[in-house]
Amino acid sequence: MTVPDSLAAVHLHMGNIDFYIPASEVLRCSLVREAQSEIPLFSHWLGLKEEPHQGMHLHLLVPGSNVLTGWTLWGELENVILAREAIFALPPLVRESCKIPVLRALVNSHNGLSPLLSWGKKKP
Amino acid sequence: MNEQLEQMLEHYQQGSNEVICVDEPRQTLVLFQISDQRFALYGAQVKEILADRPVSWVPGCAPTLEGVISNRGRVESVIRLSQLLEISSHEPAIKRSILIGRSETMQSGILVDKLIDVLEVVESQILAAPDSLPSVMQKIVVGIVYISDSYYTLLDLNLVFNRYLESCGYDSAR
Questions:
Q1: What ipTM was assigned to the predicted interfaces of this complex?
Q2: Using an 8 Å Cβ cutoff, are A98 and B61 in contact?
Q3: For all residues of chain B together, what is the average pLDDT?
Q4: Partners of residue A103 in chain B, C-beta under 8 Å
C-alpha cells in the first residue's frame, strides 16, 4: 500500500485554537444566516470553553460524526493541503488519556502543533 | 621497646590488610528541582535534556499534561510533574527544562523548574524511601539520595507514567 504524500484538510481557527479535519469528512461549512439554538456549538461538543465571537459565524457539517444538525462555530476557515511530514501520530500519553476520541493526530504548522480530528474508523 | 609505638605500628599493619572495594556499582542520576523540592531520576531513564520551549496545548487532556512539543522529528508529550506530585509553585520558574524521559513502555517530556546536575553516585548512597512520604509520592518514589548537603527524592519513571495514566482515569490493566 502506498502512503499518500499529502492530505487535503479544512483548517479551523477558533479563538486561539487551531483544528484540522480531513476535507473528505466535511460535507459543508457555510456561513450562518440565522442563528438556531438547537445547533450545538462545536467548542462545547469538544468539551472546551466557548470561543470568542471573532471572524465568521460558521455552520459545520461532518456526516461521519452522526451529529445530524452539525455544529456552529466562530472563527476562520481555509482549505489546506497537509504534507505527510507535517502530520504526527499522538504520543502514547496523549493517546491513552485524551478525552476527545476524535483527536487522531497532530499537525505541525507555524502555530505549533494543532489537533487533527477525524471521525473515520480507527484501525484496531 | 616502646610498647605504644609497637601498638601503633601493629594497627597500621592491620589497616593495610583491609581491602577497599572501589568497584561498587554506580548509578547516574539527573537532579532537578520543582518549586523548593529536590528530585532525582535515574540517568538511564532520561534520554535528553531540553531547554524550555513553547509547548502546544492539546484539548481534552488532564491538567497534568502541559501539552506537546516537536523535537528531532518526533512529537513528545510534556507532563507537569508538579501537578502529579501535588506541589504548589509559589513563583513561576525562570529557567525551566524539559527532560525527555523513557520508561519501559513509553516516552514523554517532563517539565521541571530547574535542572541542578547530572552525576554518578554509588548505589549505597541511595537509601530506602521513608514511610512518612505523602501518599501521592509513595506511589512513585523509590529512594532518597543525600548529595551535597541536600536530600533528593528519587523517582522511577515507570511509576511516574503509570501514576499519570491512573490520574487520568486510565486502567493500566486493560
A1: 0.86
A2: yes
A3: 87
A4: 58-60
